[in-house]
Amino acid sequence: MYKLAITLFTVVAFLSCKEPDHKQHNRLIENCIQQVRYMIVRKDSVCFENYQVEHRMEADSTTILHYVNGRDSFCISVNKEKGAFRLKYGTDEWKTLVMSDERWYTFNEANINLLRLQADKDVADGSVSFFYCDAYGVVLYRSDTWRNGTRMVADQDGAHFLELTALLYRLETDVDFITNPVTIPITKFATPIISSLRKE
Question: Sorting pLDDT into bands at 50, 70 and 90, what band is 121?
Answer without folding.
Answer: confident
